[in-house]
Amino acid sequence: MRLSAALLSMAALVAVAPLARAQESEEQIKKRILDKVRERLDQEKKTILERMSKVIDEEFSGTRKAPVAPKATDKRIRDLERKLQQLDDQREDLQRDIRGIKRETEDKKIIQDAKNAPPENGQEAQADFKSAFDTHNEATKLLATDKSEAAKGFEKSIAGFKRLFYALKDNPGASGLTVPSAYNVACGYALAGNSTEALDWLEISIKAGYDDWDHIREDSDLESLRKERRYLRIMADR
């Protein structure tokens, strides 16, 4: 497009000089036009190179500023992003509720065992909790040397804590065991690498009454969850 514009411009100059044109051959006229076009193109090339050199210098120096979008556009984008985030939150909540329904089937045997043979007294419940807790700690130690055995240990401790939770969750006086049991299920899943179940059980423990937010933030068992979006949602404003 630049070449055509230049040619037209040169042609116009020639058209207003009929006497000069009459004294030149067609080859001379063509050469004069091409020389003018070449001169203009050289100038434009120089200008472009200068602009590119300036942009490169700004990029290296860090002084180049990104274009600022209009404020109205920014607000529209922020509103749409907020709506999208709300939809993502709703989807996560629905998926969590669906998993909760499925969990009733997946944990059916543990639930039945818990209901059919609950701890006979507080002392037995405390012993069951300690047994699961010790298994959890042993599995945690094995993570550094034998992940396969550690996984088996977490599976066993998670089942033990779940059994206590399901057995005692409808007993208001047993919250001292049901709440930490649910929390420890979350810890076991987090260490075993199952962040989805870990976050589900963290929410279950919170709904059951767990509210030691400082411990949740500092607990190394939950380290793998720190950057999870759901974890950030759970801990927001707490």
Word description of this protein:
- With 238 residues, the protein is mostly helical.
- The protein has 3 domains: 2-61; 67-106; 109-235, Serine Threonine Protein Phosphatase 5, Tetratricopeptide repeat (Alpha Horseshoe).
- 79% of the residues lie in helices and 0% in strands.
- The chain is built from 11 helices and no strands.
- It has helices at 2-15, 18-23, 26-61, 71-106, 108-116, 122-142, 147-168, 175-192, 195-208, 213-218, 229-235.
- The longest helix has 36 residues, at 26-61.
- It is elongated, with a radius of gyration of 37 Å.
- The two termini are 62 Å apart.
- Mean pLDDT is 84; it is low at 1-21.
Number of distinct helices? 11
Low-pLDDT regions: 1-21
In terms of DSSP E residues, the strand content is under 5%
The SSE string, one letter per element, is HHHHHHHHHHH
Q: What is the CA-CA span between the terminal residues? A: 62 Å
- The number of distinct structural domains comes to 3
Could you give a short account of the major beta sheet? none
- CATH level 3 topology of the largest domain: Serine Threonine Protein Phosphatase 5, Tetratricopeptide repeat
As an assembly, this protein is single chain
Q: Give the proportion of residues in helices.
A: over 70%
- Mean pLDDT across the residues is 84
CATH architectural label of the largest domain = Alpha Horseshoe
Q: Quick one: CATH class of the largest domain? A: Mainly Alpha
Q: What overall geometry do the principal axes of the alpha carbons give? A: elongated
The rounded Rg comes to: 37 Å
- Based on DSSP secondary structure assignment, what is the total number of beta strands? 0
Task: Label the structural class.
Answer: mainly alpha
